[in-house]
Amino acid sequence: MVKVLLKSTEIHIPQPAQKFEVTHLNESDSWVVGRAGMLYRDLVPSRMGGALVHYHKVMFQLIYCYKGWVKVVYEDQGKPLTLYPGDCVIQPPEIRHQVLECGDGFQVIEIGVPAQHMTTFDHHLQLPTVEYRPEREFSDQVFCHHLAKNAVWELKNGFNICNTGVYKATKGVASVIIAKPAYSSEVHSNHDCNIYFTFVLKGKTELRVEGSESSMLSEGDAFVVPSNVVFSFCNYSNDLELLQVSLSKV
Q1: pLDDT tens digit string along 146-180?
Q2: CATH classification at residue 75
Q3: Which pTM was predicted?
Q4: Calpha distance 89→92 (Å, rounded)
Q5: Quick one: which H or E segment has residue 157?
Q6: Last residue of a domain, one of 112, 147, 182
Q7: I want to staple 231 with a disulfide (CB 3.0 to 4.6 A). Which of 41, 128, 178, 209 is the partner?
């Protein structure tokens, strides 16, 4: 998708080569061992053209708890917190953090830009830090912790939408929403974002994309679609739930 070009601490993010791409859970055999001994599955194989205190040189990083639970602690964000299914956080650039423990069957959806980025260990900082500063900015972003149990839903463009607060926390760099179709009829959509990623959290749907063959998607499948391409969801189950992540043009 992207690559990191290091020049001191500078991060260069070239424009991604956009194309429609679908990954199916039942076709994937690409689980590999990643950080902290966890298994990783790449949801966008083309990359569009990846337990000490550590931090990442990124423009954006989302951690969404898909299954199970995980206990983590973040610099200047108080006591350790536990993420349960539907909870998410954004890890602002270079915020120090540490994974403390997780339950059996834990699965997380991690989205980072750049896709390949540096992980640097901090051997001096102790977490949790003494100060609690939720308003602290890390490269113009603040820490954001969304709790599924506090979700507020609103009707927009044929979907019931839950806004996680990521757009505000990143000052418009990214948006993370949970979407459920509000009607039984076909729901059309398009976008003008730099990156638009969707993961099927629950249910099934037929995905129709302008200029491409339709795809049947079910829980665990994901897709990306280029900007200004019309796509729609139809023949979907009543329990369909989508995680949609978009990043603005930079």
Answers
A1: 999 999 999 998 899 999 999 999 999 999 999 99
A2: 2.60.120.10
A3: 0.79
A4: 9
A5: none
A6: 147
A7: 209
The DSSP secondary structure of 50-94, one letter per residue, reads ---SEEE--SEEEEEEEES-EEEEETTB-S-EEE-TT-EEE--TT
- Average pLDDT on 221-239 reads 92
DSSP state of 46: T
Burial letters for 105-134: b for 16+ Cβ neighbours within 10 Å, e otherwise?
Answer: ebbbbbbbbbbebeeeebeeeebbeeeeee
Alpha-carbon distance of 210 to 221, in angstroms, equals: 19
Residue 130 sits in the same domain as residue 57: yes
User: Token match 């299914």: residue?
Assistant: 85
161's enclosing H/E stretch is strand 159-163
- The answer to whether the beta carbons of residues 201 and 148 sit under 8 Å apart is no
In a domain, 95, yes or no: yes
∠96-14-168 over CA atoms, to 5°? 50
Residue range of the domain that includes 96 = 21-147
Q: Give the model confidence (pLDDT) of 183-226 as tens digits.
A: 888 888 888 888 899 999 999 999 999 989 899 999 999 999 98
**Pair (85, 159) in one structural domain:** no
Say if residue 138 is in the same domain as residue 208: no
Residues 52 and 143 in one domain: yes
What average pLDDT score do residues 77-81 get? 97
Domains contained in the chain, number: 2
